[in-house]
Amino acid sequence: MAGADLSRINTNVAALNALKSLRDNNNSLTMHQLRLATGRRINSAGEDPAGMVFAKRLESRTRGLAVARDNIGDVNNLMSNAEGGLQNISEILLTMKEKVLQAANDTLGTEERSAVESQLDELAAEIDDIVSSTEWGGSALLDGTFITKQFQVGEGASDTLAFGITQDHDAAGLAVADANLDVTTSAASTTSLGLINTAITTVNTSLGTIGSTQLRIGIKEANISTSLNNELAAHNRVYNADFAAEQVEVVKLQLLQQSSTAMLAQANVAPQSVLQLLGG
């Protein structure tokens, strides 16, 4: 800052210095007041270019992670829907097994076997109803057509999860339809029992696959939630204003603004003292 020479009045260096300080204080005060008004530490790229780039990169990632977490929730709901259908089919198959086990005993007569056959037909029809009604977004989940679907479970292009249910779980697909099961004799019932046990194993395998995938996406969801929280905290620290610190700066700059104004007023009148040299 240039030194003042009060004996030269064409250029009032002291006033210019005070004016510069006042302008600097005003600019800084405006910036800190804007931060308090917007809640953001960076309101233009010129304030902190590197910080702005970093903050925008963090914002892009956090918004992507938030959507990915929602996607995982949708995938989990889809699988829960499929799981519910398979659980119901499993219960029906267990009931069918009980009926066939009864028919495998030669104590049953023709009428009793006919009643068991009728019950098995109704249970098979209910399996078909469950398969036809278990769907997500218009796509059937249990009829074998839900094949190799891609789910976006991260914010990167490669963060995908492939999943499909290729097994047809209707009565014909499980070989427990009316055409497959015969309980007219003890021997035929034993054969039917083998088919039902195979169907139970098939459904259990599908349940295991869904469960393993649910476990995997549950871990992904927890990891994404942790990353999201940490990166939101980093974005907040870089991009948003610290109100306590900003308020301290505002109070300090307001005092400096008042001081600079007072010093500018004094510097403006200081050259008048030179006039005393011209006195008689």
How would you characterize the overall build of this protein?
- With about 280 residues, this protein is mainly alpha-helical.
- It has helices at about 15-40, 50-105, 110-135, 185-240, 245-270; strands at about 135, 140, 145-150, 160-165.
- The chain has two domains: about 15-40 and about 240-280; about 65-240, Up-down Bundle (f41 fragment of flagellin, N-terminal domain).
- The strands form two sheets. The chain has a two-stranded antiparallel sheet. Strands 3-4 form a two-stranded antiparallel ribbon.
- The longest helix has about 55 residues, at about 50-105.
- The protein is rod-shaped.
Q: Beta-strand percentage?
A: 5-15%
Mean pLDDT: 90
The geometry reads as rod-shaped
> Which homologous superfamily in CATH is the superfamily of the largest domain?
f41 fragment of flagellin, N-terminal domain
Instruction: Characterize the largest beta sheet: strand count, sense, and whether it forms a barrel.
Output: 2 strands, antiparallel
- Encode the helix/strand succession as letters: HHHEEEEHH
Give the radius of gyration.
Answer: 40 Å
